[in-house]
Design goal:
Largest sheet: 7 strands, mixed
Structural class: alpha/beta
Distance between the termini: 10 Å
Helix content: 40-55%
Radius of gyration: 18 Å
Number of domains: 1
Oligomer: single chain
Order of helices and strands: HEHHEEHEHEHEEHEHEH
CATH architecture: 3-Layer(aba) Sandwich
Strand content: 15-25%
CATH class: Alpha Beta
CATH topology: Glycerol-3-phosphate (1)-acyltransferase
Low-confidence stretches: none
Mean pLDDT: 90
Number of strands: 9
Length: 262
């Protein structure tokens, strides 16, 4: 693995990669950043509010899913983001997966939700529950908030994720637990791997590229560009035991790190 420390991967330590820079000005980036959030607010108000209210009134919450997909894809387009997906040939028809991804930007969430070609639930931070409209709609489309500061509540969240998978969904987890700074790959949390073991679902390592310079954490800027999402070959979990968890973590992390290094 060129220029990467296998020791850091095995020890689940932070890795740092080179970061691309936009040729547009920072002033443009700051203005575009606020445009992206304005666009998100308008989508939530104009489309989200009436859709959520209507689905709640007729007790058909699951019908919100197509609207959520449209909203995620539309927001990405309004942010100037094109999405290029590679590796769909690694997915078998009719099989559910645990998609385990790196995470550097808010753009990642919309990308993973809308572009895996699977009906998918997601794990999200509990702080999103406080966002007006979005916090209510999350539960309608199986986006589960997790409180990582409370072990008991975190376990309850993962139990809910298992129930969602039993209903025929795949599940996506940003396994670093938070957004990394541009160019970083943080240590992986174990929750996603417990979920894969308990459901016997194959793991699909997912490498999401370019979102760190397009809308990176703590940058306050945004630029248009092409998001590359690579669905890497599955890692089987059938027959694996609890003691195999760290080996699954290592294989997943190594696959993602190698792809990010390309």
């Amino acid at each position: 693995m060129q220029n990467l420390s296998l020791e850091l991967i095995r020890e689940n330590k932070k890795l740092i990669f080179p970061v691309k820079e936009s040729n547009k000005s920072r002033l443009f980036g700051k203005l575009y950043y606020w445009w992206c959030w304005f666009a998100a607010a308008i989508l939530l108000l104009v489309v989200g509010t009436p859709s959520i209210a209507f689905m709640w009134l007729i007790n058909r919450r699951v019908w919100l899913y197509p609207f959520a997909l449209w909203g995620a894809r539309t927001w990405l387009k309004l942010c100037g983001a094109k999405v290029e997906v590679r590796g769909k040939e690694n997915l078998k028809t009719g099989e559910n997966y645990v998609f385990i991804s790196n995470h550097r930007s808010y753009l990642d969430t919309a990308t993973l939700f809308a572009h895996t070609s699977r009906r998918i639930g997601l794990v999200a931070k509990k702080e999103l529950l406080k966002v007006p409209i979005l916090g209510v709609g999350m539960g309608f489309v199986n986006i589960i908030a997790i409180d990582r500061t409370n072990a008991e509540k975190a376990l309850q969240s993962m139990k809910k994720a298992r129930e969602v998978m039993d209903e025929g969904y795949s599940f996506g987890v940003f396994t670093e637990g938070t957004r990394a700074l541009p160019g970083e790959l943080l240590p992986f949390k174990k929750g996603a791997f417990h979920l894969a073991l308990q459901t016997d679902a194959p793991i699909i390592p997912v490498a999401i590229k370019n979102t760190d310079w397009m809308m990176g954490k703590k940058t306050g800027i945004a630029y248009g560009g092409t998001i590359e999402m690579v669905l890497l070959p599955p890692i089987e979990t059938k027959g694996a035991e609890a003691e195999d968890l760290m080996e699954l973590l290592r294989k997943t992390r190594e696959a993602i790190a190698e792809e990010l290094n390309q």
